[in-house]
Amino acid sequence: MAQELAATSRCLGCGYRAPSGVEEWDHVDSPPLGELTRCPECGSTNVTTGR
């Protein structure tokens, strides 16, 4: 059986990486957009998710 790879999120501001959905990532509410993922290192919300 093939092992499924977990998605990883990366901050485009400082390069911080951690698995997506873990408690390491901060979140901020933005009324027009909803909940945004925020980097715990630099505070940027410019975060991308990939495998």
TrEMBL record:
State the source organism's domain of life: Archaea
Q: Which protein, by its recorded name, is this? A: Small CPxCG-related zinc finger protein
Q: What species is given as this protein's source?
A: Halobium salinum
Q: What is the lineage of its organism?
A: Archaea, Methanobacteriati, Methanobacteriota, Stenosarchaea group, Halobacteria
